[in-house]
Request: fold
Amino acid sequence: MRSTAEARRATVLNAAVSAFARTGFHATPVTAVAAAAGISEAYVFRLFAGKLGLFVAAAGACFERIVVALEAGAERAGDAGPEEVLEAMGDAYAELIADRDLLLFQVQAQAVTDVPEVAEAVRAGYKRVATFVRSRSGASDAQVQQFFAYGQLCHLIVTAGLEQVPEPWARALTAGIRHP
Amino acid sequence: MRSTAEARRATVLNAAVSAFARTGFHATPVTAVAAAAGISEAYVFRLFAGKLGLFVAAAGACFERIVVALEAGAERAGDAGPEEVLEAMGDAYAELIADRDLLLFQVQAQAVTDVPEVAEAVRAGYKRVATFVRSRSGASDAQVQQFFAYGQLCHLIVTAGLEQVPEPWARALTAGIRHP
DNA sequence: CATGTGTGTGAGTGCACACTTACAAACTGA
DNA sequence: TCAGTTTGTAAGTGTGCACTCACACACATG
Reply:
């Protein structure tokens, strides 16, 4: 055996998050994920339950990585006040999405929520993130809501490339958003 | 002649916004748009420059309808203060997206921004909306930014179906958002 | 009526891609 | 060493779909 199936699954999931992030579910052939992972298409189908199963598993991996990053960020704030912890989590999230894979994957997943399995995975992912942010920061509901609202705005800024637009309307939207 | 090409284009665009909103660019066959518009697939290809041209035109129609709705909403606020005008615009937007087509189309368009023509159309659309909101409301950049941030949060709530989730984390995210 | 112009379609064509199957090679244990 | 299990693939198969083309009908204008 060259490798265990479990290890292969992990590398395939990394490749899948990256590939799906760039071109989305329907425009990303499984061959692209397989090639990025360095294995054959057929083996991807053995490791995961179809393309949809692969995408759902990738969503799980994506949100997992987000929660881990937020945990690490919150750790840097120790047991400071809610605002400080949220701020630290924001910084950690900004660093995490520097490579854009996790951000773009979330956008792509949101766009495929007409498939029930994906909608469920997205809900599960945000449940993990939101409950963690809430409990770890101890912030109010309104503060948590604001945290996610500006996070979603960040998604728009990056997907539309607004940080490259020098006009006033774009600068208004991007002002103060941490290095998108 | 049964109809003018221009009139056909308009009905096709309505069908396209609706169809693309539900299943996205890559998962929506042109036959579906054609069927919804009541014409043949071949004629859609004569009216628009390929599937991509159709999608870009639909994006234009989508943002056009949004600006019109915001204008009407702002009109109801007259020349009140920035907060009141923004509030009225928010109400108008909430009403407009009750059928979800315009909201979902924006999400789908964001997901296809790896295609340069789509990214350009999205930027153009948000440019129209943002400049109008800014100038018509006279609100500060920070207020405009907040307006869009919570708008994007609304998109997440609707796509993920969070308004159906009774758990505390979901209620924190949906609190106070106008009937998504 | 003849010619032209705009509206509209049926019937393809070719290709990309999800998924399967049959088979091979590596490793394990007795 | 030989049987069984796991890892891995090459080579299909079928289908859905973007896009084309030849052709038909409606209407105008001389």
